[in-house]
Amino acid sequence: MKKIKVSKFGGTSMATSDTISQVVRIIKSDEERKFVVASAPGKRFKDDIKVTDLLYQLADEIIHYKSPDTFLIIKQRFLDITKHLSLTFSMEHLLDTVLEEMFLHHTLDFIVSRGEYLSAKILADVLDFEFIDAKDLIRFRGSKLDYTLTQKTARKFLKEKENVVIGGFYGATPSGSIKILTRGGADVTGALIARAVSAKVYENWTDTDGFLMADPRIVENPHLIDVMTYKELRALSFMGASVLHSDTFYPLIKAGIPINARNTFNPSCVGTFIYDYVPQSKSKNVITGIAGLNNFTLIIMEKHLMNEDPGFDRKVLSICEKLDIMVEHFPNGTDTFSMMIESKYLTDDKKDLLINQIRKQMKPDTIEVLDNISLISIVGRNMMTNKYTMLKLFSALVNTNITLRMIDYGSNGTNIVIGVDDIDFGYAINAVYNEFIRGEH
Ligand code: ASP
Q1: Which end of the chain, N or C, is less surrounded by CB atoms within 10 Å?
Q2: How far is the CA of 39 from the centre of ligand 1 (A)?
Q3: Model pTM?
Q4: Among candidate residues 252, 128, 146, the one with its CA nearest the CA of residue 193
């Protein structure tokens, strides 16, 4: 692995001249930070508007031949950002040229991509790094990212390069038409570049210290996760805990390039590292994190001698599939089969339709519907090999008087999912957190 770090800076890191100066300090403090990926300027305060959102507004104005009023807001924003930075070019001139190009190209993708383009131009100039246009590296086929071609193109283009800044979130088709990724896609650009240059680590700098062991809105001052596996990250993000564009990280992790989530505004914190595999000796805790989601419906079917009808589960699931209902979990017993479904899929009509079809086709003895259920995922790569895991989990719930509605004992070896009533959600998370994490620190 080469001594190269790819460092991606999110929108809040690029929001003001002060934050950009902080980014510069971070990059300059480590000479391995040779490839930098920048997002468009993000929010400066809670109700601020991200530059990318302003650009969507401007795109609507330009494409529909309205007066491009939003451009003035964007222009002022960039002029404010660069006011205290000493640039070697005129920002005002660059912005006016970009506006002309927006009219010329006249596509949403081109217009929206300019936030990252301008951000990267500014950062490259203050760092005295080379600016490389992402259109020469990130390849699309139609409007879809072409992973293989991107790797080939970027690897070749960046072979002899170092100390460069690239705008995230966009690329181009082989014929040169600019395309954007989905929202938050600068993360993806960073990952693609890290793979292309065989970086030793992909740093993802945002405004939080890394991943927390639980949602701080539920648990007071949760600990930071120092190390986790990609599988654990997936299990946590599936329950709504993550903001990373996770699918694109998989090839990166498989190639042995870890992700390091870090905080621009607290660089002394080493953040969270994500690997494909973490040896047991590196694991302090039995569990890595807890995440959860509300508003599920549990449907429990009972039928005498269900086990003699081996197609029962499949037939019920195919009724769901035909009605376009996603089933999250389906724990079963000797004569019972249940399904945990996100309640949003079960509008009144659909719920009645589903129950009627199950009654008609499957003829269960009973069918019970429980609404307002929460799912909580307890994640930990070593949980299954620890003989006290279940004891601790049950005692945490019993001691807080929480009724367990469902349990799915980690078929993937990484997580246990429990179902509790929505009103018990916060209590259950705190109980599990206190038992497993506070108890161990
Ligand atoms: N600026 C883009 C967005 O707001 C991409 C990114 O920041 O990752 O979605």
Answers
A1: C
A2: 6
A3: 0.88
A4: 252
